[in-house]
Design brief:
Number of strands: 19
Strand content: 15-25%
Largest sheet: 9 strands, mixed
Helix content: 40-55%
Strand order of the largest sheet: 4-7-2-1-19-18-13-16-15
Structural class: alpha+beta
Distance between the termini: 31 Å
Number of domains: 3
Radius of gyration: 34 Å
Length: 586
Amino acid sequence: MKRNIKKPLCITLCTLLLAGSIGIAAHAAVPNEKNFGTAAASNGTAGLNSLNSDMLAATAPSASTGSPLSDAYEQNSKTETVYVFASASGEVHKIIVSDWIHNPLGSDTLTDSSTLGSVENVKGDETYTVNEAGLRVWDAKGNDIYCQGTTDSELPVSVSVSFSLDGVPVSAEELAGKSGRVKIRFDYINKCSETVEIDGKKEDIHVPFAMLTGVLLDGDVFSNVEVSNGKLVNDGDRIIAAGLAFPGLQENLGIDSEKLKIPNYVEITADAKNFKLTNTVTIAANELFNNIDSSKFDDIDSLKSSMTELSDSMTALTDGSSALYDGLCTLLEKSDELAAGIDALAEGAAQLKAGAQSAAQGAESLCGGADALAAGLAQIDSGSASLNNGAEQIFNSMLANANAQLAAAGLDIPALTIENYAQVLNAVIAQLGGNAPAIEQLKAQLDSYNAFYTGLQSYTAGVGSAKQGADNLAAGAAQLRDGTGALSTGAGSLYDGILELKNGIPALSDGVSQLRDGAMQLNDGLNELNEKGIQKLIDAVNGDVSSLAARLRATADVSKEYKSFSGLAEGTDGNVKFIYRTESIG
């Protein structure tokens, strides 16, 4: 395949991959910083800036379609994009913030709260004044406002880049033009957190930013490239290394790194010849956690409360059976104190009766919690079809884009579908032989998404199975509730019988002996049930599952509160993303 066909095909596929990974919409107005996000076309070649421009174009919202925030709620909102210009090692030189202030109701004026300096309108002739409260009041004339300004405020996440050559740390300047085994490491430090209360304790929860870093590597300079926490795309002439990290999320969720390591860095290693590197781009956004409905965790809290009641009930029940056994032993061993022993027995029976009643109440609460859990899973299961349909739409979109690229390449082949793409592309690869690396790369991208698509279908099927299990649990809890009701009735009858025993002591010595043995077995059985069954169930609900759910809910809530970097006026909704660009080397 010709180079001028292969190059745009690769760039388009990689742009879709990077943009689709986190669902970020880039601001339509690019700041006026030289060479940032603009094409650097020269003699048919393009650098990383061209890729940046393609990414912005592919993900930019159309002004004609409006904003999801403003359209959904019919309130003013602000979409903010923060452009960070940094040295090759990540030292910040300049910050430019582009704001899109949405005006869904076509108001004559818009009020904006912002810490930016040197603010200018970049798309229209609307002007602003500053009121007594220090707020900017734009003469909007019914229009949206597109403006930008500068700031030196501390960023919520810092990005630092370090380099080594053959295992020895070097600076960016020292690395230029050198050859050897090179390591480029991006470290992210999350500096933005809020103090919240989780399970009665004060905890610092970071705003959960997803950091997506992309680096374009010249195939004439770099070979044997590897990337940690990311993936590579190679079109033969150049290599795109893309990595994803979540700084602070490990601490937010309190997960042992020995069990699961959540990445907080991206590292690229390669063999380099006469090292040089284009600008790198990192996108930071917290939109991933904004889509989590934290109210879904209420069912877990309800179930946890039911487990506490069940634990208290089981404790009362085992205490009652123990007291009953002790009373029977005393009665049998001290016949001359039989009356006193019967009194103790009656007291134990009363405790057993109260414990059985408490157990019945706990079982009723457990039944309600199980029903709530089943209902929650049913609600999640009801969304599985939409999730599968959405994944299928993305797959079909990727196939449509691939069909367009293949048609532009002059290949007359059947239209690619989910069912036939592998067979069709294998036939094309076999026909083109050694001239088909881009087709092989296209198939690899589709195979990768197909694996995700198939896994998603398995996940939604698993949700259905979990729903069935929850329904069975609810049915079992109902049976337990009915059984504990019968137990409570039986305990009441036992108590009444013991009162009759007290009045007929002389004739019941043999019966007391048998009753003692039965009480011992009952006590042992209840203790075993409590230790091996009930307590393990309680520990599971109150342990890792409950803690993780609470931390995940806190993380989602903190994320939804972070809506702007430079400020929002009262009553204004917003969202923000950060784009970091480092200087080139060599």
